[in-house]
Amino acid sequence: MSEVTQPRNGGQILVQALLQNAVDTVFCVPGESYLPVLDALHDAQPIRTIVTRHEGAASNMADAYGKLTGRPGICFVTRGPGATHASNGVHTAKQDSTPMILFIGQVEGGFMGREAFQEVDYRQMFGGLAKWVTEIDSLERIPEIVAKAFSIAMSGRPGPVVIGLPEEVLFGSGLCADALPVRIAHAMPDPTALDELHAMLSTARQPLVVLGGTAWDEASCQAIKRFVTANNLPVAASFRRQDLFDNRDPHYVGMLGLGVSPKLAERLKTTDLLLVIGSRLSETVSGGYSLIKSPLPTQPLVHVHPDPQELGRVYQARLPILSSLRGFAHALERMPALKAQPWRDWTEAARADYVQHSTPPQPHPQLVGVDLAQVVAHLNDVLPDDAVISNGAGNYTVWVHRFYRYRHPGTELAPTNGAMGYGFPAAIAAKLQRPERSVVCFAGDGCFMMYPQELATAVQFGAPLVVIVVNNGMLGTIRMHQEREYPGRVSATELVNPDFVSFARSFGAHGELVERTEDFPAALQRAQQAGVPALIELRTDSRQISPQARLD
User: Fold this and answer.
1) Threshold 0.85, pTM exceeds
2) What is the pLDDT of residue 1?
3) With 0-12 CB in 10 A as exposed, 13-18 as middle and 19+ as buried, what is 140?
4) Which one of 289, 323, 355 terminates a domain?
5) Which of 346, 358, 396, 506 lies 20 to 30 Å from 352 when distance is taken between CA atoms?
6) What is the total count of domains within the chain?
């Protein structure tokens, strides 16, 4: 702890704790419940304060920051309604294993328990959503609790931490020493486990590697690539983790999740060695626990995860390995390559299946409007390798995940919990954090309308991203399920949308409407050269409900 000789209020102590931990950005909607923090941020020049127009957008931006940097995204919101709005991003961060710290104003301690103005019991509210929930009960404990929050958010399986800030703690003053910057300890794989893995691999005939989770970096992704190349192994990505392995590499064989290739799903069932690194093998990845059965998979499973509480929680692996993903990747890189690799044809066939599945088919002869597959294919051809692609939830994402080939770590911002509205705030955060990169957001018309007001945030803080609004006039995913379960009985899924182009221009953004596939390349070029946030509205065929299915 460093010694301090001058009294400070709670807001100053808290902001200094953020500075101690190298925080450079906070996302917030201001509230009177944490005024001392806002005042302290005024003088904290290393920290950029991004003010959003909705607390849900702020928490989603914090999640995106955490995904991009591996450091906790920091979000401040006011008590009560501010907290409930921000809970959306907390849920995403929990299921996506993203480091985040959400600070929430709280009523004065003496008023608690009386349902004071905007009072919420945060421990009860966020108990199942966050990795840790607490309230700071004294000014002197601010450095200690903030340090603990950073440690919990980044240790083991990363996740969100929620901290309540009672009014008297922030407004009070006193002498309080600062804590040291947090250092995270990482688990390393047991050498005997690595020997056992090597032995299992030596007897396999149809192995499959699955990559997922968070806390990767470029070096660890490259280490995995060298291991895979040396052993000629097929690699699949878990749901919305496609950027962990170059999709152009001959060893990449596709994504496990919504829209999975039927051939890849069959390979997952028939593999004789499943090496899962980082993924929880959730319901989405496992096909509702049917492709990989719980608790005893039919496939010999090697499960590598950084959190001991995850290993054995859902699956009883043949070989569980506790390790940080970075540590395990570098350990694999040092493992001797197998001389006998009888799975060569297996790998090549899996790759050929992926290439076929990810190549856009000829459009349906009755297709009207823009062919979304060709739009994604064009982006795949013209965007740089480090371009960031974000999206929220909806059937439109199936086109993106199927036909876009990710090439670089940290380029896929997509919520594994299926949160609508995530993509646009995430794209703003990405452009602010990585201004040198191209950032493109895909959003359905329903998805975009969750946080359309954040165009104001993008314009105010100078985030010249491109958002592509896929407009088919309905909530497509729900309509698809309706037609399957209740054919012809359309209910609550039709949308009446604004003039998206005029809406964008009213904020000072660039706006264009594209109604024909061949007009998209020129529109994209104009949007990229606009120098301001840009919106491209695509009018698509409402009957083309997915890449392979039409409503009629």
Assistant:
1) yes
2) 54
3) middle
4) 355
5) 396
6) 3
